[in-house]
Specification:
Low-confidence stretches: 1-20, 221-242
Structural class: alpha+beta
Mean pLDDT: 79
Strand content: 35-45%
Distance between the termini: 14 Å
Number of domains: 1
Helix content: 10-25%
Shape: globular
Order of helices and strands: HEEEEEEEHEEEEHEEEH
Number of helices: 4
Largest sheet: 14 strands, antiparallel
């Protein structure tokens, strides 16, 4: 009986910390827009302007989970853009931005509660974030950058984790309360977890046809402390049981 109670307690504590440690993920992608943008890609440099960004997928954010339209000047029509520079020889010049509005998307967020998209919002493509908003921004050296296949028919650019900032208006629209430090409409506390762009062309001239930019919220210190406290407690319980 004591073993059952012990195991039940461990699982209960882990269940409590599970949601706290699950980072919210915001993932920007091309959507159905297809190829677009002008890229200069060499063995050490990748510069792309006006790459198509059409959707935002939200994960681990409760009722706000779903897929949203990233639009340009026309509400309800995909048209966001990404601009970036990755320079392996001068990483201090690296940057990435995603610019556009965020609208409700038919069939993806129907019935979301608490000020998010309802079925009517989805049908009307209700705008959650205004046009021309810088939805994400990163400036400075990008960790783990790599450029593969430059000079051929296909080039890919990718990089690993590096800090970035999110639009305060976007975070508020998604009901994210842990905003981090906000300055000029952008809030810190986020980290890029993946970036990839595939482009076709020749020489150094390319057109992007597939893009994925995912990042996650950095865990709150309180969440880390809670998880650590639980793990310490579990360890002590196990040790006591072994000694007994």
């Amino acid at each position: 009986m004591k073993k059952v109670v012990l195991l039940a307690g461990i699982f209960a504590m882990l269940a409590i910390t599970g949601p706290a440690s699950a980072a919210i993920v915001l993932d920007f992608g091309t959507g159905t827009m297809g190829a677009g943008g002008a890229c200069t890609i060499t063995a050490t440099l990748a510069v792309c302007n006006n790459v198509n960004i059409g959707v935002l997928t939200v994960l681990n954010d409760g009722g706000a989970n779903g897929t949203y339209l990233v639009d340009g000047a026309t509400q309800g029509v995909q048209g966001g853009v990404m601009n970036f520079r990755v320079d392996l020889t001068t990483p201090s010049t690296d940057f990435i931005t995603v610019i556009g509005s965020v609208d409700c998307m038919t069939g993806s967020g129907a019935g979301l509660p608490g000020g998010h998209c309802t079925a009517a919002d989805d049908t009307a493509h209700t705008q959650l974030v205004a046009s021309g908003t810088t939805l994400m921004s990163q400036s400075g050296p990008i960790t783990g950058a790599s450029i593969v296949g430059a000079g051929g028919a296909l080039a890919t650019v990718s990089f690993g984790s590096t800090p970035d900032s999110k639009s305060q208006a976007l975070l508020a629209a998604l009901g994210i309360t842990n905003l981090g430090v906000c300055t000029g409409g952008l809030c810190t506390g986020w980290s890029l977890t993946g970036f990839s762009i595939s482009a076709q062309g020749s020489g150094s001239n390319y057109t992007a046809f597939s893009t994925d930019v995912a990042d996650a919220q950095v865990p709150e210190p309180t969440s880390i402390l809670l998880l650590g406290t639980v793990m310490v407690g579990v360890t002590r319980l196990i040790r006591r049981r072994v000694k007994a």
